[in-house]
Amino acid sequence: MTVPDRSLTVRGTVLTDGHESTATTVEIVDGRIATVTASASADGADILVDGWIVPGLIDLQINGAGGIDLTSDPRPDDAVEAVARILPRHGVTAFCPTVISSPAATLLERLAPYQPRDHVGGAASLGAHLEGPFLSTAHRGAHDAKSLRAPDEHEIESWLSVSRPSIVTIAPELPNALKAIRRLAAAGTIVSLGHSGADMETARSALAAGASMGTHLFNGMPPLHHRSPGLAGALLSSTATVGLICDGVHVHPMITELVIRVAGIARVALVSDAVAPAGLATAQAIAAVAGVRRPDSTLVGSAVLLDECLRKVRSALTWLTPAQVVLMATGTPAAALGQRVASRKGRIASGYDADLTIFDADWEVMMTIVGGRVVFRRTDR
């Protein structure tokens, strides 16, 4: 069947906003959701779903996929386009291309190619996530120590003159960090705290200055201690969104449960932190053993994409409903980016972008729709 691009109806069980609605028809017109209605009749539906219809998955932190590294690839325009075409196979319809700590010129040359834009036949870019370079050397993880530096107002202004980053991860204990947080937040950039050894008081000052996220909670920061809560404790006790890598390696399932019970599904955003091997056939075997690591065993990121993170949470935390799990990969990340994204993506509702992911009963991606167009359809089953 050839599915029309400009008008399309999809019918089945819809999971959105943390709730489940059976026998629901989603009507798409010109790339947007026109109506969402409950009806006993399936007559006229272009696509009948025996599984789940969910908003397209949104990944706020992805460093690469399919062998492509978004930081080092010499052709950033081609790199982001290629990753955008890989992601719908994994149900991802929008993402923040992530660039790790690098020389100033490398960051600048990636801001324009990674700015918010649609990719025909692929996931939409929501703007760059600069994970660094203003990070702690003591908690740098896989970041090159030579690329780390203190926040600099001239470098920040150079970013803003090219294309405002959507997210910047920063260590709030660095010199001039609070000033940098205020400037970035005033410009509309989401400031996320991470790769940091900040104490609780410094972290709270950063949140008061405008930071509103935490980057991959527990990874790249000291562990939570009952007499020294630190950054992890400050984030959990705040209203900030916290990113959580649920690949089965970075965070133990019990910690995932703890975070969700404390913060709630509206504050936990599942992220892949995927690196170049993700999406390759060998990546699954790598991830199953120990994740993607340097020779010194430092984790450098995940070898799985967001659909696998969702499956792992669904499998480990059976007390969560399917709709609650889905929210953490759709509505929560959309809301974290602010109203300009949350008013268009992350929900199945009238007026929203027609970005849909269709899962079967085993939570495998059957079909992905971006802007009303079917960009991926599983053909192997």
Name some characteristics of this structure.
381 residues, alpha/beta, Urease, subunit C, domain 1, TIM Barrel, 2 domains, nine-stranded parallel sheet
Describe the structure.
- The radius of gyration is 20 Å and the shape is globular.
- Helix 2 packs parallel to helix 3 (153-162) and helix 5 crosses helix 6 (230-236).
- The protein has two domains: 7-54 and 348-377, Urease, subunit C, domain 1; 57-342, TIM Barrel (Alpha-Beta Barrel).
- By secondary structure, it is of the alpha/beta class.
- Helix 3 (153-162) links the parallel strand 10 (129-131) and strand 11.
- Helix content is 27%, strand content 26%.
- The mean pLDDT is 93.
- The longest helix is centred in the N-terminal third of the chain and has 11 residues, at 76-86.
What's the SSE blueprint?
Layout: E1 7-16, E2 19-29, E3 32-38, E4 47-55, E5 57-62, E6 64-65, E7 68-69, H1 76-86, E8 92-100, H2 104-111, E9 124-125, E10 129-131, H3 153-162, E11 167-170, H4 177-186, E12 190-193, H5 200-209, E13 213-214, H6 230-236, E14 241-245, H7 253-263, E15 268-271, H8 283-289, E16 292-293, E17 299-301, H9 306-316, H10 322-327, H11 331-336, H12 339-342, E18 356-359, E19 365-370, E20 373-377
Parallel strand pairs: 1-4, 5-8, 8-9, 8-10, 10-11, 11-12, 12-13, 13-14, 14-15
Antiparallel strand pairs: 1-2, 2-3, 4-18, 6-7, 16-17, 18-19, 19-20
